Amino acid sequence: MIARRTGRTIMVVLVVLVMVVPLYLLVTNAFKSQHDITTQPFGWPSEGFSFEYLWRALTSPDFNVVAAYGITLLFVVVVNVLCLVIVGPAAYAISRGTAKYHRAVLLVLLAGLFIPGSTIVIPVIFVLKTIGLIGTVAGFFLFEVTLTIPTTLFLFVAFIQSIPRELDEAARIDGASRVGTFWRVIFPLMKPVVATAVILNSMFVWGDFVNPQFLLGPTSGVYTVTTGIYAAISKLSTDFTMVYPNMLLAAAPVVIFYIFMQKRIIGGLTSGAIKG
């Protein structure tokens, strides 16, 4: 028993170190000089924490951080709205359906959970190029929404199945259509799982680098936080006083967002099971 507890403790400590050490390096080096970063990357700033380097990153002509924040936030909002509009009714139809093809459709869509998005970027590029959407915002939205569908559908179907069908029957007696039943009766009850899906999708879109880098490309002139920072620091790769502050500015919003919203993520994931 003691050996087992010791082994678990060691594993937990190792996992924590793997997660915390990179974050520690990112935060501390964002406030240090070039000399401190190269000579003592794990140490504290020799002259104290300086916000000069963060300010330089914010005002750098190579990368407009504020504009990138706005563009990325717009992408986050649009992808979430499109995902909810598409997946919501689909999840309702699948969860309330009794035919065998409903289960088949669900399994096919959930198969996307096991396919890493980065592995299908190249085929998607050829498809978007064929239909004339490569390098466009519309093509990027199309692919991003597609990637968010499996996880969102999984959460929605599990939650809707825990809602009694009697509510549907009562709404139909009152004259509501199937579409009206979903949006007026079922969807308002889905607030916990909708919040979870929105949080997960937002974190995915904000931190995504591969898809906007290849699907939008530099010729589009549209930069997200991740692709903009890559374009900026690639010109100054040896200037770590620009690299670390830019990386911190990109990671800080999503880390803060997760810290404040983690309870909603857990609550949304377990709400369907609790109701069931």
The number of E-state strands comes to 0
**Helix content estimate:** over 70%
Q: What oligomeric arrangement do these chains adopt?
A: single chain
Q: How many separate domains make up the residues?
A: 2
Order of helices and strands: HHHHHHHHHHHHH
User: Could you list the spans in which at least 5 consecutive residues all have pLDDT below 50?
Assistant: none
CATH superfamily of the largest domain: MetI-like
SSE class? mainly alpha
Q: What name does CATH use for the topology of the largest domain? A: MetI-like fold
Overview in brief:
This protein is mainly α and 276 residues long.
Word description of this protein:
The protein starts with a helix and ends with a helix. It has 2 domains: 1-50, no CATH class; 51-275, MetI-like (MetI-like fold, Orthogonal Bundle). With 276 residues, it is mostly helical. Helix content is 75%, strand content 0%. It is built from 13 helices and no strands. The protein is globular and about 75 Å long.
Write the layout of secondary structure elements.
Blueprint: H1 2-29, H2 34-39, H3 52-58, H4 65-96, H5 100-110, H6 121-130, H7 137-160, H8 166-173, H9 178-189, H10 191-207, H11 210-216, H12 225-233, H13 240-275
Question: What are the salient characteristics of this protein?
Answer:
276 residues; MetI-like fold; mainly alpha; 2 domains; globular; 13 helices
